[in-house]
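Table 4 source record.
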Amino acid sequence: MGHSKTFQSCTITSGFLCKFDDALISDLESAFSEDEASRRVLAQQIRMACMNVGFFYVKNHGITQDFLDEVLKVNKEYYSLPDDEKMKLHHKTVPNFKGYSPPMEANIQPGNKGDLHEGFRIGWEEKSEDPVTQSASCDGVMAGANVWPDKPENFRVACMDYYHAALAVGKKLFCLFALALDLPETYFNDKTMYSAATMRTLHYPPQPNAPDEKILGIGAHTDFVCFTILWQQAGIEALQVLNSREQWINVPPLPGTLVINLGDQFARWTNDVFKSTVHRASNKNIVDRYSIALFFGTDYEVNIEPIYTCVSAENPAKYPAITAGEYVRQRLKAMYNKS
């Protein structure tokens, strides 16, 4: 598919956006401005990234370093547990795809031998200290309570602290995406009322030599939902995206930033005005890699069909309507070969 390259260095400056090779670094501080013109300028710059590349970085996102430190700490502890302890919450024993998935179980890129990572998936619940009191959202294919390991003790609290902080970022991004599509700023509000967002913490064991090109941390793919908010562990490069020139671009973790990459629901919804980013990850370092992905979609009963501002005589509607929940269900079943 082409060769890989690494971003040149970039200083994150004040203001709305700075250029980082093909990527844009967006300052979300402007998203909270009372000045509508400032928000629209930011939205139009994000629009360029969504149309040309399908991913960008954000800084000043509001997730505290304490939350990031704690969620990394508990996940390092969790993934160091014995396999039989982690398999007690194997997602195939749960009807809603939540829980633990072991290395090499999934194979997202046809022709590969498997994905060398393990993960733990959760969905929305109230941020309460008592998990018994949780009331799950109306989340269709993911309906039902989360499952939580007994160890480490603070695993649930740390994950939910991060989850809700990232959820707030996603809500703000939906407002910016609406402006970027020439829609009212609140266009997506009634379509994202029930927080149809799932989160996976991920552990990639080191494979510095990688003798088998058919085994990656995760193979080339696009994400299912509207967009993904990705936190990457500092100092460990593994993620690559495929740019418009068919080149694999390294996406290093930048201090204080998150990576936003668009997914297939947004591509369908925008009639391919927004790009769904092909990406992959391979941990060629000599140390373990950890990351957290929040997959942000719409409420599952929402019809995903081309938005009116994205349809024209030159760009007629390309996709039939499908509910978000059915679309996600089909993709998850294909990924895990689960009936």
